[in-house]
Amino acid sequence: MVEEVAATWCSKILNGAPVTDVEIVSASHGSSSSLVVQLAYADDSDTITATSSDGTAATPPTRPRRIFFKGGLNPDLAALGPLLQATYRREAEFYHHLAPRLLATGQRLARPHYAGVDTTTGQGIVVLEDLAARGCSFGRPQDAWPAARVRAGVEQLAILHAKTWEGRPACPDDSSTQWCRGLGPLGGFLRPILQELIKPEPFAAVAARNIGGPDGGRFADHLDVLLDRERIVAAFEALWKAADGEDHSSFRCVVHGDTHVVNTFTTAEGEPGFLDWQTVSRGNGFHDLAYFVSSALAIEDRRVHEQDLVRAYIEALQAQGGPRVEWEDAWFQYRRHLLHGYVLCLAQPSMQPQDYIWALTERFLTAILDHKVLTL
C-alpha cells in the first residue's frame, strides 16, 4: 500500500536521521500516487534548511519535517501498468542523473532526498522536498498566468534544452549527458500511452465529453474535425515522423514532455519551475514550449503574447549555450507542436480531475484551431 511508509526506511534515505514516527498528511492517486509525509525525530532537533544567496533553498533540509513521496501505485491504472511503470522509472532516473547538474545551472526544481528504481518490477520512487513548506504554490488550469510569469517559465525551459543540446559546449560529456543520450525520441514514453488512449473504444469513451465541456456544447462548430479519430491519428503520426527525423539533426535535446500548467510550481517570490518529470525524453524543445504557453495563458493573452514568448525562448536558448534558431523555423515548430495539447482530450477520469481537463482542453483546442494545426 502506498500509505505504508516506514520510519526506518525514511531514516535510511535521510542519511541515518533518527526518524521515530511517520504520519501521512495527505495522499492522492492520479496518473501517479503521491504522499505528503510528516516526520518526527528522536531528538526533536530543529530542522535547518540551507539557503542560497537569493534566499531560496539551496539544498533540502537534512532533517525535513515533511517530505513528498511519489511513485506508480494507483490500482485504477493497472491496465496501463507496463507503459506507466516506465514513466515512474524515468522520473527517478531524471532526479538521479540530470537534476543535480540542472540545479547547478539555474533550473528551479524540487530538490530530491531520494530517487531509486526497483530493477525487478521497474517501479520508480522519488522522495522530494515538500515545496509547500517552502511557500510554493502549484499550477491550476483555472488560474491563468500573467505573461511575465509565463516568460520566466519559458526561460526555465530554455535552460533545460540548452544544457542538454548535443554537440553544444553547454552539454558536457559526463554521466548526466550520457544518460540523456540513452533517452528515446520525442514521445518515447508518452507515445505508446497515447496510442492506447486513441484506440476506438477509449477514444469514444472520453473524447466527446472532454471536448464538449460542462454543457456538452463547446466547439460545436468544429466537432466534425475534433472528433474525427482517423484525422487525429494521422496528424500525430505525421508529427512523430517529423520529430523522429529531426532527432539526429536540428532539435536534439532533452524535453520535459508534459509541461502543462498543472505540472508547475511558483515560489513565494513568484518564480516558476516544473514538476512531474515522468515523460522526460529526447526530441524537439518546441514541444515543451507550445504545450506550456498554450496551457498557462488565457486564450486572449496567448493570442497577444505568444509571438513575443517564442522570441524570448529562442533568445534565452542561445544565451544559455544552445543553438541559434531562426524566427521562421521557431514559429513553424511552435505552431506544429501545439497538436500535443490534444492529449488532454483523451485523458481518462482517473488521470486528471474533470474540471482540469475541461479548462485545459478549452485552451489547447482553441490554439490548435487558431493555428490550423491539423493542416500543417
Q: Tell me the total number of β-strands.
A: 10
Radius of gyration: 20 Å
Hey, roughly how much beta strand do the residues contain?
5-15%
CATH superfamily of the largest domain: Aminoglycoside phosphotransferase (APH), C-terminal lobe
Return the average pLDDT rounded to an integer: 86
Low-confidence stretches: 48-58
**Shape-level CATH architecture of the largest domain:** Alpha-Beta Complex
Separation of termini? Answer: 46 Å
What string gives the helices and strands in order?
Answer: HEEEHEEEHHHHHHEEEEHHHH
Can you identify the CATH class of the largest domain? Alpha Beta
Helix/strand-derived class? alpha+beta
How many domains make up the 3D coordinates?
2
SS field, number of helical segments: 12
Organism: Apiospora kogelbergensis
Protein name: CHK kinase-like domain-containing protein
InterPro entries: CHK_kinase-like (IPR015897), EcKL (IPR004119), Kinase-like_dom_sf (IPR011009)
Domain CHK kinase-like: 126-323
